[in-house]
Specification:
Elements lengths: L3 E2 L2 H7 L4 H9 L2 H4 L2 E7 L5 E4 L2 E5 L5 E2 L10 H11 L8 H6 L1 E3 L5 E10 L5 E13 L4 E2 L3 H7 L7 E5 L5 H12 L5 E5 L7 E2 L2 E2 L7 E5 L3 H11 L4 E4 L5 H12 L3 E7 L3 H6 L1 H8 L5 E5 L8 E6 L10
Parallel strand pairs: 10-16, 10-17, 11-14, 11-15, 15-16
Antiparallel strand pairs: 1-9, 2-3, 2-8, 3-4, 4-5, 6-7, 7-8, 12-13, 17-18
Helix pairs in contact: 8-9, 9-11
Length: 318
Amino acid sequence: MTVRETLCGIEAAEELLPEGARQALSAVSENDRRHIDELRLRRGRAFSAVLFGREYFVTPDGRLMNSPSEGVRVGNADIEYTFMTAFRGSVHAFPRELSEGFITCPSGNRAGFCGRAVIGEDGGVQSVGEVSSVNIRISRQVIGCAEPLYNKVFAEGLCSLIVASPPCGGKTTVLRDLCRLLGERYRVSLIDERCEIAAASGGVPMNDVGARTDVFSGYPKSEAVMTAVRVMSPEVIVCDEIGSEADLRALSYAADSGVRLICSCHAPDIDALKKRPAAGELIARGVFDRAAFLGTGAVCGKLTALYILSGTESGVCV
C-alpha cells in the first residue's frame, strides 16, 4: 500500500495559534507544512517550527529561518490565547492535564507547556502558572507507514514487539498504523492514555485504528491494561511510552495472561533500551519477541534496526 498522510493535524494546530503565528504558518509552503512535527511559542521570543528534527523560526511571510531575528514575535497575549484555547477556555476542567504539563486536543494534537510550577501539599506539581512556553506536537495519521515493520514482524502471526527511538522518532505515528493493521485481524485493546493515537471524540475514533480495536481513552496506563485483560479479552494490547513500575506490573500481568504486547519506549539503541526500568525488565523476562528501532530527522519513523529477542536466533539484527 502507498503511504498516505492526512493533513488535518496541522490544520487543527492552526486553530490553537494567535493571529500573527497563524498567518505566518499559513504562508509556509505546503511541502514544508506537511513535514512540521512541532510548533513552539516562547513568551517574548520568536515563533518556530520543527521539521526533519531541526527547529526553524517562522517569518511573517512564511519563510523558515535559522536565525530568530526575522521570526514572528510571541507576546504575552499570544501565549495566553494558545494556552486557553488548548484548554477549551477552562483550565479548571482539566486538573490532571494541568499537573502533567500537557493536554491532548480533539484532533489528537498535544499541547505541552512549562512555566512556574505550583506545588501541592503532597509535594507534587499541582498546576503551572506564568506559562512561558507552549509546544504543539502535530498528530498525523500516516496510513501505510508501519507496513514494512508489520510485514517483517507479523508475517507468521502474532508476537510481542517493543518500538523504540529517541524523542520525535515517529513512534506514536507508527504505533497508530500498527494498531490499524493488527485491528483488521485481531482483537486489539488500545491504551490511549493521552488520547492522541485514536483521538476519540464522543466515543468514536477520529483515526483509523482497526475494525476490531477497543479504545481506552484517558485511562492511566496501568489501570487500563488490567481492565482490558479482565473485560475485553484482547489478543493484543497496544500502548505508548511505557516506563513506570506500575506499567511493569500491569504489562507483566497481561503477558502472563497470554496477551501479546505492542509498546513503545524512548531509547536510541538496544543497549539503552535494556537499561530502561520497565522495558529492560520486560525484555529480561522474555516478554518481548522483537525490538524495532526507528530513525529521526530525514528518516523519522523509518525502520533502522530490528532485533530478535527470543528463540534460537536471539540477538540477530536484521
